[in-house]
Amino acid sequence: MSPRDLIETSAGPVTVLHRLALGVLARDGITSRGAADGLRVGWEAAPPLLPPHHPGWWPCIDLEQVGGGRFRLRATESRPAIVVMRLHDPARRYVSRRLEVTLWPHAALVDPDPAHHVAVAARTLPVWLPPGAAYSLPRGATAVRGRVVRDGTPVHWARVVGVGPGNAVLGRARTDDRGEFLLILGETNQNPVQSTVGVDLRVHGPVAQPATGTVTDPLADLPAEPIARPANPPVPSDLDNASLRGELILPGSVGNAAPAVHLNVPVGSELSLTADVPFAPQP
Fold first, then answer.
1. Which of 214, 195, 216, 202 is nearest to 254 (CA)?
2. Count of CB atoms within 10 A of residue 169's CB?
3. Could you tell me if 79 and 166 lie in one domain?
4. Which domain holds residue 272?
């Protein structure tokens, strides 16, 4: 048995049964707790690598689910150095994300030299998922529900930012493959608190609407977000930053040339918009 197949413990050498390539921790974008059950997480693979009878809408190899929003990818020598991960909620409680992730080299994971050990935290990917159309709103939440369109067509995967008094960001949301969004407002930046809060909706979306997703693959036009690999060992900002929280503008997106929609949102209530939010890409 190779030394790399053993690890030393207080009880003596122990055989290594598997090594962790990547641990994904899916977090609720509002509470930061582990995301609700029912998520599907996988890495995109070429058709010859996909398991038999896999659903056509999911061109991925699933990660192992270990509970509490946690998923595990075991290390193998044959896997690509860079993988595209998908996090998808069929129940639409969360908006899907695609992430381009660089894995640690397999040789580094099996190196028996303790000085070269790759910390588990450096192989961990915390991901915050924005609330989707079916998200269960907390009691007393202040929220805006709506849809972003371009010339009457839903805008997929747009960013919607709610800006309040003093140019303060009160909340962030993303549209789904139907153009729908749920913007939950946090601190209303009011003293004293009033019955309504003024909010401007600022939208970033694709320059040109990408080829639409289909029943075969509804996430086909969802841009992949590049995620930096943590240091070894990681610093706090490696595991909690704007990229992981989904606060950055998606690749290929621009601002909105259409006027910002201004709303007076009732504090502690949900406002469902009767008119769509228009989007026209800035030149």
1. 202
2. 15
3. no
4. 142-207+252-278
Region of residue 38 (phi > 0: left; psi between -120 and 50: alpha; otherwise: beta): left
Q: For residues 150 and 209, what is the distance between their CA atoms, to the nearest angstrom?
A: 9
Query: Quick one: 25 and 77 in the same domain?
Result: yes
- pTM here is 0.91
**How large is the average pLDDT for residues 204-219?**
75
Residues pairing with 13 in the sheet: 8
β-pairing, 261-266 vs 196-206, is antiparallel
Residue 1 confidence class, pLDDT cut points 50, 70, 90: very low
Based on its alpha-carbon atoms, the radius of gyration of the chain, rounded to whole angstroms, reads 21
- Give the integer Cα–Cα distance in Å for 14 and 74: 18
Which residues, listed in sequence order, are joined to residue 234 by a DSSP beta bridge?
none
Q: How confident is the model at residue 38 (pLDDT cuts 50, 70, 90)?
A: very high
Residue 185 lies in a domain: yes
pLDDT one-digit tens code per residue, 218-236? 898 999 999 999 999 999 9
What would the mean pLDDT of 27-31 be, rounded to a whole number? 97
Parallel, antiparallel, or unpaired for β 142-150 and 277-278?
parallel
224 is a domain residue:
no
How far apart are alpha carbons 7 and 20 in whole angstroms? 14
